[in-house]
Specification:
The chain has ten helices and 23 strands. By secondary structure, the protein is an alpha/beta fold. The longest helix has about 30 residues. About 35% of the residues are buried. The N terminus is likely disordered. One of its GO terms (molecular function) is indole-3-pyruvate monooxygenase activity.
């Protein structure tokens, strides 16, 4: 008995670290574990619940949709009409505008979570997730505020998304630059840059809109345009450009739809190459399908470029103490640099699996629409490069697939326990 007590005490000591005050314990989850409480995680949890399958969401932040709440600028609105951004089973409120604001979108997600009774485990950072072939279950290790917990589950759904971590490129001379250098994930408003010369690196939707926001706060922005980019009007012929494109694709091949979009854009926006914004050789929809690169939907930035309020620069070569040097040999003085350089997946850093996800970019190896399901009960949602429409498609497929397994197991258990005692 003394030996058993000694061993029990040793076991407790091994699991309890007095310095870090962390208790490692295991928790069995009867349904799927979902990693990430953004729109993708909420969507798949709601679809599962509708089919009678319980789930648990693990979220590293202290709120749902942490990217939207904590890492987006104040003036952000949805770039697509709300009907293309709603999650499964619940449309946006009718009184919301066509392009909901950031605050309205977050409110919609909070209503969504409340309606479906979704209560994520917050402050639970997933350190690792690995399939145990001996047990036939996933082991998901999390680090919380006070303890480490290992969750065991049969199904694991990765919903951390394509935008989990900001991309911060290495720029020569950045350590010598005396001004401010921030990523757009830390940018809220141009108010703090009033009167300053600001260099925005990146000409996607975020970079364009940040430049516009800076102008509206009397800053002096310059935009680095390194690559060719498609800029389209947000609306054409009284309809959203995206909605019109989806309608045309029902009747015409993608190359003809691209020709139409470029023709109307030329009429409405003029030749963007004259503004330093050359177009890629592939059309906007073809390029999106091939590379995932989204065309920029103009909300007023081009007008500021035409008036000279926003200056377009070539690729950034290096920074010095107070200046930026560009690939065309020009030099400019700047007080701040804002990196609109996008985000990346962080899946390879914690998921111990190299079959469903690529270790190179953290995205599913198989292209849309085949990248939502892996082996051993592993799934991905929100990695389609097709925004919230792709998320909704993934969520529905995953919930249907898991429901089949869930019902089959329930039937097996029912049949097992209904057998006469003598046959067991």
């Amino acid at each position: 008995m003394d030996y058993l007590k000694e061993m029990e005490g040793k076991s407790l000591h091994d699991q309890f670290d007095m310095k870090n005050i962390k208790i490692i314990r295991s928790v069995w989850v009867p349904g799927p574990v979902i990693v990430g409480a953004g729109p993708s995680g909420l969507a798949v949890a709601a679809c599962l619940k509708e089919r009678g399958v319980p789930s648990m969401i693990l979220e590293r932040a202290n709120c749902i949709a942490s990217l939207w709440q904590n890492k987006t600028y104040d003036r952000l609105c949805l770039h697509l009409p709300k009907e293309f951004c709603e999650l499964p089973l619940k449309p946006f409120p009718e009184d919301f505008p066509t392009y909901p604001t950031k605050q309205q979108f977050v409110a919609y997600l909070e209503m969504y979570a409340k309606e479906f009774g979704i209560k994520p485990q917050f402050n639970a950072t997933v350190k690792s997730a690995e399939y145990d072939h001996n047990l036939g279950f996933w082991r998901v290790r999390t680090l919380g505020l006070k303890e480490e917990i290992e969750y065991l589950c049969q199904w694991l759904i990765v919903a951390t998304g394509e935008n989990a971590e900001p991309i911060v490129p290495g720029i020569e001379g950045s350590n010598d630059f005396v001004g401010t250098i921030v990523h757009t994930s830390s940018y809220k408003s141009g108010e703090v840059f009033h009167g300053k010369r600001v260099l925005v690196v990146g000409c996607g939707n975020s970079g364009m809109e940040v430049c516009l926001d800076l102008c509206n706060h009397d800053a002096r922005p310059s935009l680095v345009v390194r690559d060719a980019v498609h800029v389209l009007p947000r609306e054409m012929l009284g309809k959203s450009t995206f909605g019109l494109s989806m309608w045309l694709l029902k009747w015409l091949p993608i190359r003809l739809v691209d020709r139409f979009l470029l023709l109307v854009s030329r009429v409405l926006l003029g030749n963007t190459a004259h503004l330093g914004l050359t177009r890629p050789s592939l059309g906007p929809l073809q390029l999106k399908n091939k590379s995932g690169k989204t065309p920029v939907l103009d909300v007023g930035t081009l007008a500021k470029i035409r008036t000279g309020e926003i200056k377009v620069c070539t690729g950034l070569k290096r920074l010095t103490r107070n200046t930026a040097e560009f690939t065309d040999g020009s030099v400019g003085d700047f007080d701040a640099v804002i990196l609109a350089t996008g985000y990346k997946s962080n899946v390879p850093s914690w998921l111990k699996d190299n079959k469903l996800f690529s270790e190179k970019n953290g995205l599913p190896r198989r292209e849309f629409p085949h990248g939502w399901k892996g082996e051993c009960g592993l799934y991905s949602v929100g990695f389609t490069k097709r925004g919230l429409l792709g998320t909704s498609m993934d969520a529905r497929k995953i919930s249907e697939d898991i429901e089949c397994s869930w019902k089959a197991e329930a039937k097996h258990l029912k049949d097992l326990y209904s057998l006469p005692t003598s046959s067991l």
